[in-house]
């Protein structure tokens, strides 16, 4: 194990006391269900908890209180996401031309790297250069694997990450597995958008709700992972209770995307269309799909700050306190709070379209041009 892995792969149910208590009871009574939906915001530990669930089933040297040792052969393989009795289905980039196309070497490399990063830090959010799906061939492959007997005691676990991104075909195929699961098979779905799941799936599965993490817990955790106090503080303040986001905030890519969000806000005041098109072109050339999401989150956070400054005329609870000069310049260019409120509405509605709209260029252009329209309506800029 190298130094960068810290202890990240084994944090258990961090900060999710209700979930932790629930599973303490489930495991101590031996009444483990065959299907669970871990639902709640991104980055709060749903996947991490699914790994903890798996360790509790499979650990060969459990402690007296039933918690896993994190050190035995089984625990280590689970932490590396390579246990033969653990199947993980991630949403993956699909070739846009033909649904059945095999993934190319570049995509495969991207996937391998992403999964390695996820194994080192389960809070890491997978990011790919294309829109992602869970397709029917993945579900069929899963069914096949789950039908084999498990290699060790404790049964098999399948984790379906972001299960709401299943195609309709995939969801229908999955429903059959859920209705008649093979013996000793445990299915865990994770989702930040459970309402997008088929109602027939939701009704056949035990729902476990995860909540946002308190900022102080995020701060504590980041410090325990060796991040500097001041750095960790900004990341915790901006994290919105999302530990995955907090880790993103500490990465150079994030800092770059936050800069891009400020640039994008400037484009709302840009008169020349060509400059906007050039910026979007440049952005698309260098950035991946998941990064656009981070860009929009930043744009949303920035707009929220502007709303607070314009409307409440106060600087309390701002998220981007380190860039006050720029915020003040934007505030001066705004007519009133309603204008920025309309802009926030636009950003939120475009953000929620991400997983449905594979044409990200259009989405980003739409945001800039409509945003410009909103802000130019009697703006002072
Ligand atoms: Zn163990």
Describe this structure in words.
With 381 residues, the chain is α/β, with parallel strands linked by helices. It has two domains: 3-209, P-loop containing nucleotide triphosphate hydrolases (Rossmann fold, 3-Layer(aba) Sandwich); 251-376, Zinc Finger, Delta Prime, domain 3. The chain is 52% helix and 8% strand. The strands form two sheets. It has a five-stranded parallel β-sheet, with helices on both faces. The chain has a two-stranded antiparallel sheet with strand order 3-4. Helix 6 links the parallel strand 5 (156-160) and strand 6 (185-191). Helix 5 packs parallel to helix 6 (168-179) and helix 13 (289-311) packs across helix 14 (324-333). The longest helix has 23 residues, at 289-311. Mean pLDDT is 85; it is low at 1-10 and 96-100. It binds zinc ion.
């Amino acid at each position: 194990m190298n130094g960068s892995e810290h202890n990240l792969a084994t944090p258990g149910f961090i900060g999710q006391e209700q979930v932790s208590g629930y599973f303490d009871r489930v495991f101590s009574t031996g009444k483990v269900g065959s299907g669970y939906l871990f639902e709640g915001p991104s980055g709060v530990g749903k996947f991490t908890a699914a790994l903890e669930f798996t360790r509790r089933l499979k650990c060969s040297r459990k402690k007296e209180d039933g918690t896993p040792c994190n050190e035995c052969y089984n625990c280590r393989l689970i932490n590396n996401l390579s246990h033969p009795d653990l199947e993980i289905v991630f949403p993956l980039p699909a070739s846009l031309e033909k649904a059945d196309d095999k993934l190319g070497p570049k995509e495969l490399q991207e996937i391998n790297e992403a999964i390695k990063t996820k194994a080192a830090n389960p809070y890491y959010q997978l990011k790919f250069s294309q829109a992602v799906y869970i397709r029917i061939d993945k579900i069929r492959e899963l069914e096949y694997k789950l039908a084999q007997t498990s290699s060790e005691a404790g049964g098999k676990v399948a984790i379906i990450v972001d299960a709401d991104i299943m195609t309709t075909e995939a969801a229908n195929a999955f429903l059959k597995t859920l209705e008649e699961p093979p013996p000793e098979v445990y299915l865990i779905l994770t989702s930040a958008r459970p309402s997008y799941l088929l109602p027939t799936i939701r009704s056949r599965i035990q729902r476990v709700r995860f909540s946002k993490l308190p900022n102080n817990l995020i701060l504590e955790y980041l410090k325990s992972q060796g991040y500097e106090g001041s750095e960790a503080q900004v990341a915790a303040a901006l994290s919105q209770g999302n530990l995955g986001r907090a880790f993103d905030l500490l990465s150079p890519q994030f800092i770059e995307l936050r800069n891009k969000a400020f640039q994008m806000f400037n484009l709302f005041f840009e008169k020349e269309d060509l400059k906007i098109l050039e910026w979007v072109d440049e952005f698309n050339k260098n950035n991946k799909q998941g990064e656009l999401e981070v860009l929009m989150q930043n744009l949303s956070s920035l707009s929220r700050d502007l709303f607070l400054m314009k409307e409440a005329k106060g600087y309390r609870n701002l998220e981007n306190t380190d860039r006050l000069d720029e915020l003040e310049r934007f505030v001066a260019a705004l007519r009133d709070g309603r204008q920025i409120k309309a802009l926030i509405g636009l950003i939120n509605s475009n953000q929620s379209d991400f997983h449905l709209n594979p044409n990200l260029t259009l989405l980003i252009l739409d945001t800039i041009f409509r945003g410009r329209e909103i802000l130019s309506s009697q703006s002072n800029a």
